[in-house]
Amino acid sequence: MARRRRPPVIVGAGLKMYLGHWETLDWLGEVARVAEGHPGLRRGSVELFVLPSFPALVHAVRTLSRLGVGVGAQDLFWEDAGPYTGEVSGAELAELGCSFVEVGHLERRKYFGETDDIVSAKTAAAFRNRLTPIICVGESSPRPPDDAAEECVRQLDNAFRQSRRAGRLSSALVAYE
After folding, report:
1. Is 38 a catalytic residue?
2. Radius of gyration of the chain (CA)
3. Catalytic site includes residue 151
């Protein structure tokens, strides 16, 4: 009987806003050094991605994509173009060479008022631009495990709502916070 190949372990790191620009570039260099010699990455049993701050994305893509390390953004806007000062579109992220984008992060919901509808629109923008969304789910305050699981499933169902309607579902990752 043929042995089935296990799916790879996927490991990702989002930097949030913890490092300055030059610290981020140094960190990306360290990631590159680790990735170059990592046997799991070479075998394909491990996939790695990083989510640096926006100003470091081009450097991250140039440094890491040749090593098979995915690069993504910590956020995106739900429209692909238009008069949206300070926003970054999925189309631009894809053009830069990003493969991933984080959506629905608890901090974006808490500090920027992002709603389920916004998370759904951002997920649809990721799929539309061939980016793998990393959909963040989790309860905003401690709950019993069954209630927490129900909330996470509700958030995930909602994140896919617009994409499901448009017939544009693809691969996604889920991050529990």
Report:
1. no
2. 17
3. no
Rounded Cα distance, 104 and 134, in Å: 8
Quick: pLDDT tens for 21-40: 999 999 999 999 999 999 99
Backbone angles phi, psi at 11, to 5 degrees: -125, 130
Burial 10-48 (b: 16+ CB within 10 A, else e): eebebbeeebeeeebbebbeebeeebeeeeebeeeebbb
Nearest to 127 by CA among 173, 163, 82: 163
From 79, 105, 107, 151, active-site residue: 105
CA 32 to chain CA mean position, Å: 19
pLDDT digits (tens, 9 = 90+) for 40-99: 998 999 999 999 999 999 999 999 999 999 999 999 999 999 999 999 999 999 999 999
Q: Is the pTM of this model over 0.70?
A: yes
Distances (CA, A) of 11 to 69, 112, 173, 175: 10, 27, 11, 11
